[in-house]
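re: that chain from earlier
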Amino acid sequence: MSTTPLQPTTVTLETSCKIARSEKPTITLADLEKVTPDQIVAMSFRELDGFIDDGVQCIALNRASIIRARQAVRPAFIRIHAMLTEKSQGVRNDLNDVPVMTWTMFCHNKYLLGCKRTLDALIKDAGLENPSKQAKFLKGDKAILLANGTDRPVSYTGEVTHVHEKTNPNDYRKVEIAYQTPDGVKKDTVPVTAVEKIKITKKHLAIGDLVILDDIEGGAEVRYDGNKKLTRTDTLSKAEAAKLAQDERNVASAKKKREAAVAKKAKAMEDKRLIAAAKKEAAALQAKKKANGKRGHKAATKPTRPFIAQKLGDKFFVFEKGEVEISIRTAKSSQFDTLADAVVCANGLNQKYGFEATI
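^ sequence. v structure.
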């Protein structure tokens, strides 16, 4: 009697997982409650991960006992959150087989179980932040780019430079963030789950506090009177102060222009007066010269020699060169107070009678 040998059956990884899940016993609420907080502290990451999976499934199957189930799973959430955040710094997580992931990545993996509302409720009951409820990012927001354990071994503080629109409603929104590294400034485009918005501390106003409202006239000062009431103070706003400063500059400029115009007009009048006085003086001197020439030489005969100016005593007189032709003894008009006047007279006579001028 011959026998046919059995052929080995090929089992895929997906089939093995289905068999493992089908053979795994369903955990009950009583099983969850048997696990103490001390046991949770002693669990490794893999054990905590499996315990939370069991709790989520138990809650989904035991709606009537949901509160008790949440209370049982709550310490595990707090413990694993501490493992995946900065609260775990200084703790040897390598002893608890903690993988390289963030709290956000962990919650995202649990959402894939298909019970988002249950997980949100568990996170809320544990008093932890829910990464699925991300704050809205705007350009210029300060944020922390979280470490991912690979190309970013540490976190960086940076600034959001661009917010991208979602192309797939099931994907996380992406932002571009610029941050400083030892090699200089870098820019990365990452999902919002990879960044943490730095919250701006809001100050609670006390009665009497003064604040500046930038959306009113560029910055207006108001006083908080309590009960959500604000009163405008007498302090000028930025727009009013700028306008006042501009008005003062305009007044000073107009005053300077007026003063310059007055000074220019006064100078023009003074120049005109000096010119008129100079012309009058020149005309008077010319008339005096003509009068002196007529009176001093009226009775004289035509000279044969040129005339020169000569000083006698403290006066100046005009003489014919070589002898006295016109002197104080014959004509009073030949007497001059200055040498210049005598020279002018002599030159006039020389020109009249065709002689060369003398000095």
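Residues 1-22, 87-92, 325-333 have pLDDT under 50 and may be disordered.
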